Amino acid sequence: MPRFAANLSMLYNEHAFLDRFAAAAADGFQAVEYLFPYAHPAADLAQRLADHGLQQVLFNAPPGDWDAGERGLACLPGREAEFRAGFAQALDYAQALACPRVHVMAGLAPAGADPAALQATYETNLAWAAELAATAGRDVLIEPINPRDIPGFFLNRQDEAHRIVQAIGAANLKVQMDLYHCQIVEGDVAMKLRRYLPTGRVGHLQIAGVPMRHEPDLGELNHDYLFQVVDEVAAACGWAGWVGCEYRPARGPVARGTSDGLGWLRRTA
User: Is the dihedral of CA 56, 57, 61, 66 positive or negative?
Assistant: First the structure.
């Protein structure tokens, strides 16, 4: 079975953030990811990882003003200095947390903006970030996100993400393939896993049930089958990444909290 990482921004919200590390470890997770680490000193987060025997496998670079609705800076002309300062901060955290990869959110396309200018800014920023990250031994990830969850997000499709990665040509620039977003935008998820995992350009996978973004055993995707596909393809091509569990635990009659909804994970053990 694939290796699963608990997304602490979405899972274990019944606990304070710093207590979620212990909860994830108690449920058998060996790795964690989350959206942003910057509200906490890196040393505090590193201590939680060490205390509970967890690996940090992913977090996001600063996205701009998240509370005001910004969802990344990488495609925005005129924000390059802010993007670069934020990415440098992300690399400092990655070093402190021994985290091998940082996700760079593309951002929202401003109304009336020139798509060519956005694309050029995006690719220039990614090339710069990949070069800097290479000196620190880190990967940079880009993620296609569906426009229903984030209307106006600049990057939506797997093929476009792979085209960008190929065009830039940096070995440490890779795609974060979220099967939830992929299903909503494109479908044909199993065939896309078979197509893209062997390329070496997929740095991380994420999962959630479709359409409600609850546990992966709720909804229209057969994740048990998809896990078998990942195993099959990984055995053939040597892919050894993590699968981030980036979903909102169901409540009410389905589950009372994160742990109660992990029957899908226990079946994979």
Answer: negative
Q: Is 191 exposed, middle or buried (0-12, 13-18, 19+ CB in 10 A)?
A: exposed
245 vs 54, 95, 127, 208, 217, CA distance in Å?
Answer: 15, 23, 28, 7, 12
Q: Name residue 113's amino acid.
A: A
Looking at the structure of the chain, the number of domains it has is 1
Residue 85, helix vs strand vs coil: helix
Encode pLDDT of 21-74 as tens digits. Answer: 999 999 999 999 999 999 999 999 999 999 999 999 999 999 999 999 999 999
The residues, any chain, with a CB within 8 Å of residue 89's CB and separated by 6 or more, are 38, 61, 62
When pLDDT is cut at 50, 70 and 90, the band that residue 229 belongs to is very high
Whole domain around residue 59: which residue ranges?
Answer: 3-268
User: Looking at residue 112, which CATH number applies to its domain?
Assistant: 3.20.20.150
Say how many residues make up the chain: 269
Is the whole-model pTM more than 0.85?
yes
> Which DSSP category does 108 fall into?
B
Report, as residue numbers or ranges, the catalytic residues.
143, 246
Nearest alpha-carbon partner for 137 in 98, 105, 168, 166: 98
